[in-house]
Amino acid sequence: MAQESALFNLNNFNIGFSGKGLELSLQTFEAMRKYIYENCGIYFQDNKKYLLESRLQKRIQFLGLDSFEKYLDYLKFDSKSLEERKYLYEAITINETFFFRNQPQLDSMSQIILPEIIASKIKQGKNKIRIWSAASSSGEEAYSVAITIVDLLKFKYPGFEFEIVGTDINYAVVETAQRAIYKDYSVRNTSAYYIKKYFKAQNNTYELDPAIKNMVTFRLLNLYDDASMKSMINFDLIFCANVLIYFDAGSKIRVVNHLYNALNKGGYLFIGYSETLHGISKAFKLVSFPKTIGYKKE
Fold first, then answer.
1. Mean pLDDT of all residues in the chain?
2. Is the dihedral of CA 177, 183, 185, 187 positive or negative?
3. Contact of 270 with 239, CB cutoff 8 Å
4. Exposed end of the chain (fewer CB within 10 Å): N or C?
5. Closest Cα to residue 181, out of 211, 213, 214, 148?
6. What is the DSSP secondary-structure string of 124-187?
7. Which domains does the chain have, with CATH numbers?
């Protein structure tokens, strides 16, 4: 999800659901809402009952179940419930992203943040930069970071290793990111120069250069899960845009604490334009950049 994707754009669904089919009772909606919230932090408000009902219809029917109640029992008690969560998360998330979606953040990264961090690491005798695209959706944000680094920075710092990690809760978009083959929509904001240099265009698809593809590692990750987040450490820069707006206050605090712990001292966090850490965390220092803002861990 970068991602309006990033993870959960619950306000912009346009679903052609006819209203026919299974009915989600208020009692089961509340139980399903609680289950989803406890497992990934997404909170469906009362006016999103229809949304949840329509998004889960096909999955329930695919499993051969005849009610939302039975699907909830399946999630809670069946031996395949952990596997089923992947499909649940796919059903309730929307992934809206494209290459170079947030250019001011990329500019600030290449012109200010990474040169600052690299200078600090040189003094420490270190030569590795770690960047995380949280809620990376189908990978466009993470690959935009990689392209920017290769084109503008890598030749300046030949002794440095740049490690980029992309994560998302939706297994389907993680698989798309790993393939690194895109349609016109994904590259609509990409310059002709970058398309020619870093993509192989063929049959209305754009296959990313293997050198860029190999710079990024993608994997499934639940930002809300304490145990999973313990593995996300020692990052110098985190992109986590358009994610927090779909959590309630408690979930935001929990996720932001995870992001803070994942950063090295002196590292930076970028979130979405419509998001803020005001009232969520006082641990970061707000930093102004040209046409954007970031948060620094001091």
1. 91
2. positive
3. yes
4. C
5. 213
6. HT--EEEEEETT-TTSHHHHHHHHHHHHHTTTT-TT-EEEEEEEES-HHHHHHHHHTEE-GGGG
7. 26-92 (1.10.155.10), 103-297 (3.40.50.150)
